[in-house]
Design brief:
Layout (H helix, E strand, L loop, with lengths): L7 H13 L8 E5 L6 H15 L3 E7 L5 H12 L4 E4 H7 L5 E6 H5 L14 H10 L3 E7 L7 H10 L3 E6 L9 E4 L2 H6 L7 E3 L11 H25 L7 E5 L5 H13 L9 E5 L4 H6 L5 E3 L18 E4 L12 E6 L10 H5 L13 H4 L1 E5 L2 H10 L5 E6 L7 E6 L9 H15 L6 H10 L7 E9 L4 H6 L3 E9 L6 H15 L3 H12 L15 H10 L1 H12 L11 E6 L3 E5 L15 E2 L13 H12 L3 E6 L10 E4 L5 E4 L3 E5 L4 E6 L3 E2 L2 E2 L6 H15 L2 E8 L2 E5 L13 E2 L5
Parallel strand pairs: 1-6, 1-7, 2-4, 2-5, 3-4, 5-6, 8-14, 9-12, 9-13, 10-12, 13-14, 26-29
Antiparallel strand pairs: 10-11, 15-20, 15-21, 16-19, 17-18, 22-25, 23-24, 25-26, 27-28, 29-30, 30-31
Helix pairs in contact: 1-2, 1-18, 9-10, 15-19, 18-21
């Protein structure tokens, strides 16, 4: 097994890739959008290990871009985290051919660059001959295309086409969405919540109004500001007891020796030189234009040549590094916290990967301090800044400060105990048993139970029900897209050996809901449904082993629905937690805002000075949130409103439990202080659209119960707020998803 514990979101990606590449109905191309810092290499290693367990006749080709020795880095990680897996490189292919069960790490330039011997005719079989040889051996190819956005060339496509892989998995932070295939995007918020990347990237923080005289003035100003922030970060790390030296990256638009020398001289005046090793540089000629410049600055200085003196070490000496573009791919330096993006007369191509290098947290955790939990971009390149914002990886932010009177407000928050992630297997087994028993009116008579479940749509027997496409198609494209066709059904007798993989990924899909491993989830299901297994007091069916396989595989969609309902079951189970602590509203906060609003109105009721309408646009807030904040602004009964954070130690949190006693935290959206002195806690949810609920939170009822209990315990008022037909409704009595229920009343009748 891979020697690293995956984060929850990483497990979900592995499960998706495994399920997709073992489903005959999946498209052969899979695009994975993986934000920089999400651990895509670890995810891919875990997936390959799982896939090869069931497909030992497969050859995996891991294709990496040429810059940065990324293939060597990826191979080293596989050897470190999954030493049982076989690895090789392109020279091994040329010399010995492909070996099934092996992952080949291949540098794109070695197989696509003109004149490379990998494609030359010689006494050795070239790459294409080795691929043909593998096909004759009936070996299957699985292709991983790392940083796929860089490999869209005709030569690259020729190599990929010749492999005729069962599946292509294309991975990038900025993938080509035009690729026809399956698509999966890792939610950036999931990566942030796990502490792997920074909470935000601040753009030009502290540069509220600047007048620029010339390029030199602009450059000097950015460098001085970056150094000011770097020193603040360094001090904060020291206060936290961390031996981390923050690094400033200075990116140049071109190999302009004059501009590079100006920066070097400026940094020298500030005390950062190549001689004292506080300054480093990394320049390479990457384009034809670069080569024509004949720059004197090419090469690496103070980058380090060994692991002991590498600039990527947390306590490495350099604090400024000058570069152009070469480090954007395959270079990880979590201590890099600040980017200065210089410009000349023209803006250059925006590279999201460079920004991604600033998002990594050195120790994969947040500190509850903005100066450490965020990264910083300084640039006066407006085109570049706009591209960054539109890419969704950074935002314009404004620092706001708490007004005097709200500083006296003292709130209470809850914290989980140390066993928050503990899951009681017996409790889970009981909950699942009770759900099936009560939902389907099951008894101790197993044959009767089978009939009752059949009536409710469950399929029994020893055959697998699979659909297949049929019909008349005019073009190859119509076949691929399944248009103008219909589906037939194929019945296949269960084979417990060959269908083990189908059982595996179906149980993987169920384990997510209950927080158990694959084996323990399987044990729960076997106890309930498999003959002569587990505690007979929890037996609902007496299925044979082949019947059990068919039951789980055929009924996976219905089982998923059942397990989701079990997890969200709101019975108000008691949840122990260690303590409550007092909380003050943070003295300052950074809020994202839209910089292109024509009219900006300050919201006077907000606890922060400078909080305004550009911070609650439809780009940044849900409709219920926008309507609620405007409602409070116009309501004379509301004295102050505070927008609570979504995660973090500095925000108000409440403990709730799911049906399996698993402790979770949620953060009510708003805190109100009314003119009568009362405190209200408000959670906003998706409202109702054309008679259909827009609320996607399956844990909403559990949160409602927890919020109600918390409010009563601490003498707060509370409510869930949703919108319908541009009006707001509140519920603070008994939870109901149906907004036509009497529990939902107009907000104006309550507040």
């Amino acid at each position: 097994m891979i020697g690293i514990t995956l984060k929850n979101f990483q497990e979900r990606v592995v499960d998706f890739l495994f399920e997709t590449t073992t489903n005959i109905n999946s498209k052969p191309k899979i695009v994975l959008k993986s934000p920089t810092g999400s651990g895509k290499t670890v995810i891919l290693i875990a997936y390959i290990e799982k896939y090869l367990t069931y497909h030992d006749n497969t050859v995996v080709c891991w294709l990496c871009p040429g810059r940065g020795n990324l293939e060597e880095q990826s191979r080293e990680k596989m050897q470190r985290f999954a030493p049982s897996l076989k690895t090789a490189d392109v020279l091994d292919i040329i010399n010995s051919g492909f070996e099934a069960g092996t992952t080949y790490f291949i540098n794109w330039e070695m197989i696509t660059k003109k004149g490379n011997r990998a494609l030359n005719e010689s006494e050795r079989k070239n790459l294409f001959e080795r691929i043909s040889e593998a096909h004759r051996k009936k070996q299957n190819f699985l292709i991983i295309i790392d940083e796929e956005h860089q490999n869209n060339t005709s030569k690259a496509d020729d190599v990929i086409s010749s492999m005729n892989a069962l599946y292509e998995i294309r991975v990038s932070a900025t993938p080509n969405r035009r690729v026809s295939g399956e698509f999966y995007e890792i939610d950036e918020l999931d990566v942030i919540d796990e502490g792997l990347i920074t909470r935000f990237m601040y753009i030009n923080d502290g540069l509220d109004h600047v007048e620029i005289d010339d390029l030199s003035h602009e450059t000097d100003l950015l460098l001085e500001k970056a150094d000011e922030v770097r020193k603040q970060i360094a001090q904060a790390y020291k206060e936290e007891g961390e031996n981390i030296r923050p690094l400033v990256l200075v990116q140049f638009p071109s190999l302009s020796d004059a501009l590079i020398e100006h920066v070097e001289n400026k940094l020298n005046d500030m005390g950062y030189t190549y001689e004292n090793k506080l300054l480093a540089s990394w320049f390479s000629a990457e384009t034809t234009a670069d080569k024509k410049l004949n720059s004197k600055k090419l090469g690496k200085i103070n980058i380090g040549t060994t692991e002991e003196d590498a600039i990527t070490k947390a306590d490495a000496t350099p604090v400024f590094m000058l570069f152009k573009q070469a480090i954007s791919t395959g270079w990880d330096c979590p201590r890099a916290k600040i980017l200065v993006k210089l410009r000349e007369n023209m803006s250059e191509v925006f590279e999201i990967q460079t920004l991604g290098r600033l998002r990594r947290m050195p120790n994969a955790r947040h500190y509850g301090r903005d100066i450490l939990d965020c990264s910083f971009l300084y640039t006066f390149d407006e085109k570049y800044k706009l591209e960054v914002i539109n890419a969704g990886n950074a935002f314009e932010t404004q620092r706001v400060f708490l007004k005097e009177e709200p500083r006296s407000i003292t709130l209470v928050k809850e914290l989980r105990d140390q066993d928050a992630d503990f899951v009681d297997e017996k409790v889970i087994r009981t909950r699942v048993f009770e759900h099936f028993r009560d939902t389907y009116n099951l008894t101790g008579k197993k044959d009767d139970n089978k009939v009752r479940m059949e009536i409710r749509g469950f399929i029994f027997g020893t055959t697998l029900k699979q659909s297949y496409l049929k019909g008349k198609f005019s073009t190859l494209r119509s076949i691929k897209e399944g248009t103008a066709g219909s589906y037939g059904q194929l019945d296949i007798e269960v084979n417990t050996h060959s269908h083990g993989i189908d059982l595996q990924h179906n149980i993987d899909a169920l384990k997510k809901y209950i927080g158990l491993s694959y084996s323990k989830t399987n044990q729960v299901l076997k106890t309930l449904f498999l003959r002569d297994f587990g505690n007979r007091n929890y037996k609902l069916l007496n299925l044979s082993l082949r019947e059990y396989y068919a039951f789980v595989i055929n009924n996976i969609d219905q089982l998923k629905d059942d397990f989701a309902k079990i997890s969200s079951d709101a019975r108000n189970y008691a949840a122990p937690f260690s303590k409550t602590v007092d909380l003050k509203i943070p003295l300052e906060e950074h809020y994202r805002y839209s910089p292109y609003e024509k009219r900006i109105d300050e919201l006077e009721t907000n606890v922060y000075k400078g909080y305004n309408s550009s911070m609650i646009t439809d780009f940044l807030r849900s409709s219920s949130e926008r309507l609620f904040e405007w409602y409070c602004e116009r309501n004379k009964n509301v004295k102050y409103i505070y927008k609570n954070g979504d995660s973090g130690q500095q925000y108000l949190s409440i403990v709730y439990t799911d049906a399996f006693f698993k402790q979770r935290l949620f953060y009510p959206d708003y805190v109100l202080k009314m003119t009568d002195g009362s405190i209200w806690l408000i959670e906003t949810k998706g409202g109702e659209r054309q008679g259909e609920s827009a609320n996607i939170d399956i844990q909403a009822e559990n949160k409602f119960i927890a919020l109600s209990d918390f409010a009563k315990k601490h003498d707060y008022e509370f409510g869930f707020v949703r919108d319908k037909d541009s009006r707001l409704y509140i519920n603070n009595t008994a939870y109901s998803e149906d907004m036509s229920n009497d529990a939902w009343v107009l907000l104006e009748d309550v507040l």
